[in-house]
């Protein structure tokens, strides 16, 4: 009985956390998107480029300056609409950028995978973070010329990777929540011989 009650309480706490986070997200700072381009990659498949409008609150600037790492997640998906069944997920990709400040060198650092870049100022780091370029999101052979899909893109500050005390603060402080809505658009695969065949949004 006690174990069952504990499980119920734990589940209730998870639900309340999700609801509180959703409410705070509604008050969040929006990340704008522009110049979204899904175009043939140099090798094969398709690559995505876009510009984001990312503006830090004073709280985020202070947190990074004191050594707190911030993780930004970019997600892409390509879906084939089907009237007779659930839509088919044809491609899905994600990448995480880690933003940190190193007091010893007085430099900001952006990292993703094995790639690391250092900057003299936060503005320079955010400029690079705001420019998504030639990110391969669709492998060759996954789509065929003439097919039409729904593409989707979003970016957000992943508060789940913050230390626990900051996660709790993010529930009630909109300065910690920075996200975009899903941006969706129609994408028709161009013929192989097409030059400059870009799908823009």
Structural notes for this entry:
The protein has 201 residues and is α+β, with helices and mostly antiparallel strands. A hairpin with a 2-residue loop joins strand 6 and strand 7. It is built from 4 helices and 12 strands; from the N terminus they run αβββαββββαββαβββ. The N terminus is likely disordered. The strands form 3 sheets. It has a 6-stranded antiparallel sheet with strand order 7-6-5-4-9-11, covered by helices on one side. The chain has a 4-stranded antiparallel sheet with strand order 8-3-2-12. A two-stranded parallel sheet has the order 1-10. The chain starts with a helix and ends with a strand. It has one domain.
How are the SSEs placed, and which strands pair?
Elements: H1 2-26, E1 29-30, E2 32-40, E3 46-53, H2 58-65, E4 70-80, E5 88-102, E6 107-112, E7 115-119, H3 122-129, E8 131-138, E9 148-157, H4 164-172, E10 178-179, E11 183-188, E12 199-200
Parallel strand pairs: 1-10
Antiparallel strand pairs: 2-3, 2-12, 3-8, 4-5, 4-9, 5-6, 6-7, 9-11
Could you spell the SSE succession in H and E letters?
HEEEHEEEEHEEHEEE
Give helix % range: 10-25%
Distance between the first and last residues' Cα: 55 Å
Assembly annotation = single chain
Radius of gyration: 20 Å
């Amino acid at each position: 009985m006690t174990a069952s009650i504990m499980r119920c309480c734990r589940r209730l706490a998870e639900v309340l956390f999700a609801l509180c986070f959703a409410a705070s997200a509604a008050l969040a700072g929006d990340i704008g998107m522009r110049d979204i381009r899904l175009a043939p990659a140099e090798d094969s498949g398709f690559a995505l480029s876009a510009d984001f409008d990312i503006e830090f609150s004073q709280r985020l600037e202070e947190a990074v300056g004191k050594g707190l790492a911030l993780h930004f997640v970019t997600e892409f998906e390509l879906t084939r609409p089907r009237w007779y069944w659930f839509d088919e997920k044809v491609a899905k990709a994600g990448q995480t950028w880690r933003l940190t400040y190193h007091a010893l060198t007085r430099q900001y650092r952006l990292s993703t995978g094995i790639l690391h870049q250092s900057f003299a100022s936060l503005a320079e780091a955010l400029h690079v973070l705001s420019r998504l370029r030639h990110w391969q999101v669709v492998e060759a052979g996954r789509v065929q010329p003439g097919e039409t899909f729904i593409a989707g893109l979003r970016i957000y500050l992943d508060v789940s990777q913050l230390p626990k005390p900051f996660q709790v603060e993010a529930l009630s402080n909109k300065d910690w929540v920075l996200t975009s809505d899903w941006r969706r658009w129609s994408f028709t695969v161009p013929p192989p011989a097409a030059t400059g065949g870009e799908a823009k949004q």
